[in-house]
Amino acid sequence: MRRRSFLKKIPAVLGSSFALNNIPMRVMAEESHFLRLAEQSDNDRVLIILQLHGGNDGINMVIPSGNYDEYYFRRPNIAIPKLNSSRKLIDLDSTMPSVDQVGLHPDMIGAKDLYDRGRMAIVQGVSYPNNNGSHFRGRDIWHMGGGFDDYYSSGWVGRYLQSTYSDLGTYPDDFPNAEMPDPLAIEMGSDVSLVFHQEGNIPTSISLPGSPEGLANLVDSLEGFEDQLIDPRGNPPASLDNSPYSEELKWILSLEDKTEDYAQRLLEIFQAASETQATYPETYPFAAPRGLIRNPLSGQLQIVAKLLDGGGAGQGVKTKVFLLRMGGFDTHADQVESYDPTLGAHAAKMYHISSAMQAFQNDLKERGLEDRVMTITTSEFGRRIFSNGSFGTDHGTGAPMMIFGRGVRPGVYGTNPDLSQNNVAMQFDYRQVYANILKDWFQVEESVITDDILFGNFIDGTGENGEVYEPIPLAKDQITSTEGFFKDRFSLNDAYPNPAENHTVFSFYMNTENHVKLGIYDQKGRLVKEVLNEQRSLGEYQVKVDLSNIKAGLYIYKIEAGLLNESKKLIIRD
Amino acid sequence: MPLAPFAGTLNKKQAAHLLRRATYGGSKADIDALEGLTAEQAVLQLFDSNIPDPELPIDPEIGQEWITTGPDGEENARQNYFRYWLLGQMLNPTAVPNDQKLSYSTREKITFFLHTYFTGKVSKIDNSRALYFQNALFRQFAFDSFLDPELNFKSLTKKICIDNGMLIFLDGRDNVKGNVNENFGRELLELYSIGRGLEGTNPPTDDPGDYFFFTEQDVRAAAEVLSGWTTDDDFATIDEDTGLPRGVVRGNALDATQHADGDKEFSTRFDDMVINPDPLLLENGRQTEASALEEIDQLIEMIFSKEETAKHLCRKLYRYFVYYEVDEEIESTIIQEMANTFVAGEYKLQPLLTELFTSQHFYDAAAGIEDDKFGGIIKSPLDIVAGTVNFLGIQAPDYQTQPTDFYEFSSGLLDSTNSMGMDFYEPFEVAGYGAYHQFPRYNRNWISTHWLTQRYSFIRELLAAPAMDGSDAPLIDPRVFVTTNFPAVGADARQLIIDIAPYLFPMAENLGYDSDGDLTQQRMRYFLQAFLGFTDYETEVDMAVAGWVDLYSQPANYLEASTRLQNLFNAMMQSPEYQLF
């Protein structure tokens, strides 16, 4: 379905010269197994997992505005206003069917901008069968990439990395090496999550609590890291093999090794990268509980961008996966302020994610890395459709996932949830999202995804309850222009009639509320007639313009409205 | 059937093991004193009915405690004082008589276990008195054999339901009838009582919301049973069993206005139990504080009637005190037997722990080393900090008479604990610190690339720290430490390392420089080289060792000898071996 509708858009894209080269490439990439194989060896793509810990309230993030009355009815004390409020939901995309229209939280202006520029997708109703209401079990399931009753001691990313780098040996023993001198994965912060675990060995990631400087300097100066030249670094004697002591000791030793291996390398790369040119948000601009004011992602995302940059093409880390965590989504109480449902703990978090991701994308663009990086959000579950009495929500099941990046196929996948239920029903198994990202973004062989990573065919197989999966083309296997997506949502249409005599009609479409400046200019750029200079909400507009006072000639009509900046020629006849 | 008891007497390794696991670590003298005792004799010293209760923390601004006197003061600072004070309890406070220190420390270790079990976070509770009283509740129930016979872990679970700190932490105070807040009800079932079973062993259930031991229906029903309570911000409502403050019902004692009225229906996992109020406790048909309390009583009795609840606690205890990996064999033997003891012992914690600490399994169950428990746990940052301070005999300033000095000292230690990955009383999530619940790694969660460097860094900083009196002297004079604790071998560099090692490391028998013992000969040589500062072992060792005799015995060389010993301690304690206990 999705693919067909995408193909239909080709003519629009063909119109621009630079897409010409890309279209055949893109089609070929989708169809050709060989092209994909060729690329596999040289895939420089990166995935960032942004884990929203505590169970994010997806319904107040991606608000089902197409069914607003029921939304309001089910959670009146925390519902985000749709109309008549200075802070109201942001209509996301008026090109969608009206029942599936969604609005973003009012503090997600940054995300709206990314969406309009074709750098964001939303997947509705992501869950898994028998969704578990436990934070801890739920998170483990998402990290291990299993079902509700699976217990793997490895994580899906750990298995992905293990299979991708199996040619280069076994982690940790054979790493780093010349071809992969960097950590396979980095967890920002001090932990190492289950997601990076591999069976029977230390995790495939290292943790980085702040800038690499602190880590490298410490390692350099500590006596505990001096011993490796002289002795086997505390490797236990063979006589203690298989004792619990020996097992733990080897675990620590492996991590000690990796710390030393990577600390200096990360520092060098970090220092070689130029400072960011993007402006990252530091604080939430409105009132919020203490502790939620500072943006927890900005600093970490800046480090990720610098590590990927490393001072120039090919100089950055080859690390494939980064994990960032953000806590505090367990909003049983005081999710919103009692006096204003658009403010409070959840609002601040929505702002932090959205503004930091916008800055991050800008940063990546400045550094020429935008094509390489994709970010997904995960959370162990969504929250109930109905609110509780304490301005909060209890644990639910399904929720939307957000995906950011130039490599994403923008849009909203899936439909609004049935709000008469207690919970958001599953439309997509979370493993379908992972599987399709592995296939299209990391270009992993489908058989490897099925057999070695997710232990099931989540691309086009059949689920345990007989549901048939269809491929979800979330990620592009070739990075292409997003112009087609953009033009569907922001366009200045051809004036009619043109050439015109006494009047003409300008029409335009825009997907974001904005101040609109529309005017007619002469060939020297002087304003001849102002047509519009006012705030307009999103939608399609037609403006009939009287031309009787303008003498015949060639003119330009131009619109300036946020992302929509376009000009066209207008001929006026006597 | 109780666990098989440990036979014979404890050797040094076993005595040190007991103290490392059951307390926040002893000195060399403490370990030596337990050596040669039977396990039973040794453990008896850990449970002393006469140990004093801690003196209350002091707010230096007012020069006295604020817990009983009232809320006027700098609340944020007081929450920190609470945390510093609590750490101080683990560092052998000066007020505790010497012969009761080990028992005092044992009680703190169990008290902290109860915090890892019934979690709390300073930032959410945000009330120093609520934090203090909850901690006092834990401390009271840590040694529950010395309480009234009917008070036990089950009663503690009832008390925690209406504890002021817990009512804040999991939104119990926001849980009102008609529109219940499920937060506490869920975690009570999942984390604080029956749990989710042993990972990976529950048969799959096909019903969404059925977690085998409880269901979403039970979460909701429990939330209804628990509805209608709020905090008593004056801490004036006293529980008659504990003498400690508790929460209150909304409304008043004779009209619990926000407590759910009707039947609370549980699932088949609880045999379709229905909890409803005792009609004798109602006032004109209305719910009262007594009827709401009695419903909680029914709820906890219902949960504890399931054997799984005992097993869940026993697994947690096992992971905290013995070993993190509970496989199906351990589950069906040790955990099962512990659970039997627990149930048969009227849900008392203390006899269960006594049995555990005196069992063969706690040390080394069978022939061979594969099930030896020595060194099988990665120390928590708290164990590193408190254990190191206690072993080195560093005495914290007295918090009653020198509160400012004490807070400076303990806040420095807590900063270190923090940077090693344990945000003290601020676990990342409501399940508590990852080491105590995160399948499959448990205590391995304490080690990441970052945290390991911080552990080493703590040792370096501690050994380089200046004395607290502001003089030029070091906090720890390693030479004084050696002459006090190892007088007979101080001058013998080789023997000194051999003698110190068993007190620092869990595995340190049969050590030598020309053959492998529990440490390889290369490792021993490395320690010797780091200590005496030479590079080529074969050609230089004899000269270096002879040189040490000189350095150690001549007063003129005092400083250099100290530096060399500091190097030795750095080498031995900034090591993977020292991370284990």
Looking at the structure, what is the overall shape of chain A?
globular
Mean pLDDT of chain A: 88
Distance between the termini of chain A: 50 Å
Q: What is the fold named in CATH at topology level of the largest domain in chain A?
A: Alkaline Phosphatase, subunit A
Strand order of the largest sheet of chain B: 1-2
Order of helices and strands of chain B: HHHHHHHHHHHEEEEEEHHHHHHHHHHHHH
Count of discrete structural domains of chain A: 2
- Percent range for β-strand residues of chain A: 15-25%
Total of DSSP H or I helical runs spanning 4+ residues of chain A? 16
Name the chain pair whose interface involves the most residues: A-B, 74 and 87 residues
What global shape of chain B is seen? Answer: globular
Spans of chain B with pLDDT under 50 lasting ≥5 residues? none
Multimerization state: heterodimer
How far apart, in Å, are the first and last alpha carbons of chain B? 28 Å
How much helix, percentage-wise, in residues of chain A?
Answer: 25-40%
| Average pLDDT of chain B | 95
SSE class of chain A: alpha/beta
Rg of chain B, Å, rounded: 26 Å
The percentage of residues in β strands of chain B lies in under 5%
Question: Rg of chain A, please?
Answer: 26 Å
